[in-house]
């Protein structure tokens, strides 16, 4: 990984900190080994890494496909992948769900305000004799 080592160094440090914070241990060597596999077999993986759980899961699916197709992969990558997956899960938000809830809340508040505004509106009426 010669050049790649320096390329991934910040990402490795970040993953190591997340693993430590999540009370999971693995060596820097194992994280680096996993990233070498990404570099070799998952060329679409961002050069600077990612904390996006969907992308991490896609990598896992790709690695399982490779393994199923007879590609030899280091045995330690599975445990390392799983540990990183565990620490990435709590970082994710259900942004679509949260956005929908926020919109519904805002719409509900807006409708409530509109109802209040209608009730408080003074509508002039003309009384004819």
UniProtKB/TrEMBL annotation:
Residues 9-89 form the Beta-retroviral matrix protein domain. One of its GO terms (molecular function) is structural molecule activity. InterPro entries: B_retro_matrix (IPR003322), B_retro_matrix_sf (IPR038124), Primate_lentivir_Gag_pol-like (IPR050195), Retrovr_matrix (IPR010999). SUPFAM superfamilies: Retroviral matrix proteins. Residues 94-119 have a biased composition (Acidic residues). Pfam families: Gag_p10. Keywords: Lipoprotein, Membrane, Myristate, Repeat. Residues 94-129 are annotated as: Disordered. It is found in: Membrane. GO terms for cellular component: membrane. This is Beta-retroviral matrix protein domain-containing protein. It comes from Rhinolophus ferrumequinum.
């Amino acid at each position: 990984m010669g050049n790649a080592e320096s390329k991934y160094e910040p990402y490795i440090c970040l993953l190591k900190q997340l693993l430590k914070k999540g009370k999971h241990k693995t060596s820097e060597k194992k994280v680096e080994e996993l990233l070498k596999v990404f570099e070799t077999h998952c060329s679409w993986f961002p050069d600077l890494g990612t904390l996006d759980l969907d992308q991490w899961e896609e990598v896992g699916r790709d690695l399982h496909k490779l393994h199923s197709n007879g590609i030899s992969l280091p045995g330690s990558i599975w445990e390392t992948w799983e540990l990183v997956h565990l620490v990435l899960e709590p970082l994710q938000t259900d942004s679509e769900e949260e956005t929908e809830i926020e919109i519904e809340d805002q719409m509900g508040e807006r409708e409530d305000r509109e109802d209040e505004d209608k009730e408080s509106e003074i509508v002039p009426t003309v009384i004819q004799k």
